[in-house]
Design goal:
Helix content is 0%, strand content 41%. It is mainly β and 111 residues long. It starts with a strand and ends in an 8-residue tail after the last strand.
Length: 111
């Protein structure tokens, strides 16, 4: 399970998920992994997520995925994984493709 996450060094707002987590990429890496609907979740798919909220039981988890073009895998080329984080949004993507856009809640991420 390949992953690149951003977690706080200091839990200024409290323990997880209060101080947040940004998952820039998560990829299973299995060649023939599919979900219950038959959709690929393997070497041709990556996911991005953000986690925040007041406690583990009531945390918010925004997530989205990206599939490579048909017949290709994430391992066929180098990729640029990126985060655009402003006071108004967090956007996470691969190469030139935004994968997850999360607009900052009116009350912020830490309530």
């Amino acid at each position: 399970w390949n992953a690149l996450w951003m977690m706080p060094t200091h839990n200024v707002y409290g323990t997880w998920p209060q101080s947040g987590e940004i998952d820039i990429i998560e990829a299973a890496g299995n060649r023939h992994l599919v979900d219950h609907g038959g959709h690929s979740r393997g070497v041709d798919r990556m996911g991005c997520s953000i986690h925040y909220g007041i406690n583990r039981d009531n945390h918010i988890h925004d997530t989205n995925g990206y599939n490579t073009p048909h017949g290709t895998t994430l391992g066929d080329a180098f990729h640029k994984y990126w985060v655009d984080w402003t006071e108004n949004h967090i956007i996470v993507g691969i190469d030139d493709h935004p994968v997850l856009t999360a607009n900052t809640p009116q009350h912020g991420y830490f309530r």
